[in-house]
């Protein structure tokens, strides 16, 4: 069992939308909620057991489907960002061309999982963090210039994609 979040007066209202289903929940949560608390809440809200693999990814530039796509309202249409161009060789035109053509535009800012293993793909530049150590206040902040995107996006344009492996589905 996870420890309860520390007391706060700062809350955020979140919509939890199941992908491919018209099922959602709207919940107001303290910003001191850890991702471990977040996981436990999702288990409770949707009646799931805690026996499956799961992880969360925090994305900037989230665009939701709106009323033009009634079946998909509230689900994510697009999200993410490319790895910064500064990570490539600035003086090499072929590296810049490679960045434009092949760098995925849908990378998360970071991943959150129950435990972080030391074995990591050296080409995966997305930071992975442990769910007990990360709070919602590290994602959304009162001053949007200090949110997880460093002001690149408003709080409303930041989202979490939670993946729950039901096994075999």
Automatic annotation (TrEMBL):
InterPro entries hit by this protein: MM3350-like_sf, Plasmid_pRiA4b_Orf3-like
Plasmid pRiA4b Orf3-like domain: residues covered: 16-167
Protein name stated in the entry: Plasmid pRiA4b Orf3-like domain-containing protein
Classification via Pfam families: PRiA4_ORF3 (PF07929)
Source organism per UniProt: Boletus edulis BED1
Domain of life: Eukaryota
